[in-house]
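Before the break, one more example. Copy the sequence into your notebook; we will annotate it together after we see the structure.
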Amino acid sequence: MPVGTAFHERTMALCESLNYREWSGYYTVGVYEMHHEHEYNAIRNSAALIDISPLFKYRVTGRDATRFVNRVISRDIQKVSVDQVIYCCWCDPDGKVIDDGTITRLGENDYRWTAADPSLRWFQQNSLGLDVKIDDISEQTAALALQGPTSGKLLHAVADANISNLKYFRVTHGKIAGVPVDISRTGYTGDLGFEIWMPWKDAVRVWDKLMNEGEIFDIHPAGMVALDIARIEAGLILIEVDYTSSKKAQIESQRYTPAEIGLGKLVDLKKETFVGRDALAAQEKSGSERSLVGLEINWNEVEALYDKMGMAPQVPSMASRTAVPVYRNGRHVGKATSITWSPTLKKMIALASVERDHSSVGSTLQMEMTVESVRHTVSAKIVSMPFFNPPRKTAVPTV
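Here is what the structure looks like once it is written out:
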């Protein structure tokens, strides 16, 4: 059965709904209150504190650490400076994505690597012949995402660290409540935000400091339901929802290349060889078969479907992770994988995987929608992503 994270004694006391989910063997809060409205609004309008400790975390060190990282990922780690963070993916020999995550370069040959799925065995298999040490620090390192427009001001108030000049996808080091922390300008919400990395045993002290001092910044703990909506608005994919890890795929169509899930820019074919390079080089010449697109669903048509049933339109209260078919002129061309009502945009939006020939921005597709157990289709226009992309996301935070 799941166990609690380093923050469980705090999150459990705050979780009025008793709505929990299992994440990598840990209890994680789905929604703290009976509805996620306040938590979502905190992400977009003030500050939200999210427990992301269940992420798998690895420390990679040793003389050949940089060579090892470059052997595994599709990006060129040689272009990454110390105290810089990158988002990346890694592939199998056929160029199909195994997982995606972030890598923080903490030193010349010192990295912290996050992953959604357990990756230690794959890393060890690809470290043969290299002087490299790979430690699973998942249970030693706790992590919090502090996201939202007031997050920078809050951190400036509580952290003994240089927050004022912290650029997007960079990391700084310091202390919160006397606990040594790394603070990165990263997140999974598409908003101004930070991720804080700390020793597991001292994590509660950091939580308490942020929550106590954060009251004037309107801080709220936020769960997975609110986070799911925010990440779809930001056009951010989720493994086993928007794509399947090639390790878990049962058929060929469940295996995706980086380009097919919107990660084509994370592939550097000019760098030294890496796992899957030859396959990806061949694909670049032929082109990918599918594309990740953003869909904006025609709300007038949704309303009309419910009106025919004599019902008011039903706005989905949570993001859907159930894939539904997508068509063009009656022909099946893909699937919508993550669907939500965006409270900020006041639109119903979706991430979808569609055939390349039908993936142009501006094209109109049809997405399946079920109303009262009857299947229908509604129009869905392909739009540019991310759906929500405020300037503050990448700006150096004002304090």
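The chain has a mean pLDDT of 96. The longest strand covers residues 331-342. Try to locate both features in your own notes.
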